[in-house]
Amino acid sequence: MTSYFAAVVDFVGAHPHYALAAVFLLALSEAIPVVGTAVPGSTLIIGISALATGADVNPWLLLAAALAGAISGDGLSFWLGQRYHREILLGWPLNRYPQFIERSEMFINRYGAASVFLARFIAVVRAFVPLVAGILRMSPRQFYAANILSALAWAPAHVFPGVLLGMAVSLAGVSAGQRTLLLVAGLIVISAAVWAMRFYLSRHPLPTKLPALVGKAVMTDPQITPAEPNISRA
């Protein structure tokens, strides 16, 4: 396994555009229904950022790729919801996840436009809220304001831990095999911390003032009136 990860580091260094493309696609997948719940995009982005930094890939390009992917992913899901409305929920595979649709709808009804920002950091609903927001016909101005603002917070929080880990390991002056082991150990610790944070957020209510603050940041009322109520039971 050590030789495998060493080969990955060398490959990323020789083909940095693959690292950027991978980070973009993983960030995009986070907002794609079903895909975002199955692919550990956040963990992989941290790992690729660490590996790419160890191979001297520019961390600012990694950040740009994560930002572009996050904004594009939410935008694509929102567009699909606007374009196909609730009919998209009747087909496979979305018709197999009514509980996630209902949970996302309740999340939007509770937090309004701020839900787009908040969902970015909460497991499960992060992959469904943009789609449901489009179905509920949230204002595009409100949606994209929250989308961009949340991406500006989310991308550095996932890229920079990997970058710092990669820099720390590189500065340690260890051999390739030791570097890989340290990277893997660091990724396990960071991934566990990310998982614990998301698990906590999924089980505990958000601070009552947070949605209002986010609503003000995106220059809108934190509550919206859905144009298509009860979509999950339609």
Structure description:
By secondary structure, this protein is mainly α. It has one domain. Helix content is 71%, strand content 0%. α4 runs antiparallel to α10.
DSSP helical segment count = 11
Count of the domains:
1
Q: Per the principal axes of the C-alpha atoms, what is the gross shape?
A: elongated
What are the low-pLDDT stretches, counting only 5+ consecutive residues below 50?
A: none
Kindly estimate the percentage of residues that lie in beta strands according to DSSP: under 5%
N-C termini distance = 49 Å
What is the succession of H and E elements? HHHHHHHHHHH
Report the strand count.
Answer: 0
**Biggest sheet, open or closed, and with what strands and sense?**
none
Which structural class do you get from the secondary structure elements? mainly alpha
Helix content percent band: over 70%
Whole-number mean pLDDT: 79
Taking all Cα atoms into account, the compactness measure Rg is: 19 Å
Secondary structure topology:
Blueprint lengths: L1 H13 L1 H14 L5 H4 L2 H14 L4 H26 L13 H14 L2 H6 L9 H7 L4 H32 L4 H28 L6 H8 L17
Helix pairs in contact: 1-2, 1-10, 2-4, 2-5, 4-9, 4-10, 5-8, 5-9, 9-10
List keywords for this structure.
mainly alpha; 234 residues; elongated
Outline of the structure:
With 234 residues, the chain is mainly α.
